Amino acid sequence: xxxxxxxxxxxxxxVFAYAExxxxxxxxxxxxxxxxxxxxxxFATKIEINAVYGxxxxxxxxxxxxxxxxxxxxxxxxxxxxxWERLFGERLFGFVQGDYxxxxxxxxxxxxxxxxxxGYDLLKTEKHQLKLLSSIGYTFQDYKNGxxxxxxxxxxxxxxxxxxxxxxxxKEELRYRTNLEDTQVYFVNSETSLQVKINAHFSLGVGYKVxxxxxxxxxxxxxxxxxxxxxxxxxx
Length: 236
Hints:
By secondary structure, the chain is mainly beta. Helices cover 6% and strands 72% of the residues. The chain has one domain: Porin. The chain contains one helix and twelve strands. The protein has a twelve-stranded antiparallel β-barrel. The longest helix is centred in the N-terminal third of the chain and has 13 residues, at 4-16.
């Protein structure tokens, strides 16, 4: 399972080559290095590909965050997501989704979630787009202490876009996921970003991510991780 999902996600972009209504590519790159009393280095990248083929919509999202202080690694996080949506009407759609998270400092070797559900495009205007999704699936977790766990999971997601001006956009992605067999185990992830266009293809952006887990796998792991980044953005 650990090796299978990254292979699946890597193959998905090949499907996009057949998209008849175009492909949208969104890429972000952040790099910060300081020296003096404290030497720090942080690198982050994010790639998102969207494609439409008739009533089918495809999404591939990959991100990587790495950081170290005084030459000691303190952040190493990889996230992969693939989703296929099938429109049933103008707004209602079904979907299947898989994601994979490897976070070296969260108490897990990796987590992977496979799910299927329904979604609805609640807002589809020039200014506002809001997509809501609900799903049931299966989660597998491999812990740093050598144990593992799997369970049935339920998820709720919201994806919002606000085109404030022609050159200014606000994005908010929110996801809640819980263990349906023990609802005290749940995760909340939020990503808020503001993007200012420089020209047709390049933008500058700021983003704030929050990752919360209500029951960490060990007592030494904090419940909340936050990340603030400034990025150079490319859209095609």
